[in-house]
Amino acid sequence: LTGYSTLRQIARVDTVKTDHFEILTDENTADCGWVTETQDRPTTGTPSLKTQKILIHEMYAKPKISQKLFEDSEIDIESWLLHKVAEKMAALENESFLYGTGNDQPRGLLDPSHALRTEALDDADSLINMQDRIHPRYTQHAVWLMSPLALSRIRHMKDPATGHFLWQPSFSENHPQTLLGHKIFVCDQLGTKTEQHIVFGSFYHGYQIVDRLEMNVTIDPYSNKPFIEYYVRKRTGGDVCDKNALCTMTV
After folding, report:
1. Residue 49 CB: number of other CB atoms within 10 A?
2. Considering the entire predicted model, what is its pTM?
């Protein structure tokens, strides 16, 4: 699924052996101060920890093919079928990692409950302002995630000072397309009928994907003769773990 899923390529992915995953995050920082040799040392502020629980959810597919097609097909029909299922599961995952409600599915990073900082795409300066909203500790891993339509609009934008295009194309596999010095990842599911979205930041720090069960296939040639049924399951979860690492833009 990693090859089909854009979010899996840039977010943090961990595997667990239970039905949930817990993250400890800092609620605040420690305090300190200067003192003289004989000055009192009152108690300073102590950081606290908050536990975030990410639940595991299940997706499935149950396609079937006839036994005759399985036996007589000139291609590997089983491999073709499972690859099509994997593509669909990856698309459904991407959509849930972006817009999921958290009810029987992962909670998406664009779910309104996260209240990520949001800009509107007006000109080149708005993209630069969006970059400046991310703390420097996240910029080393920061990338752009956008829809194809958003990318199409950005490709025409130029730096008002130099006249150079902000978007830089990819000339080789080792040099991906970039925007203002950061890699661009394109996701078909990142957008609605009314608006397109751009997300910038460190997805490794900002979004956590949790796997309990890889794509698992059970083959049943007995229950529904003359068909062979393929019961495909995948158990996974996801949620924003640090909203300060990400910001969004509407197009």
Report:
1. 9
2. 0.85
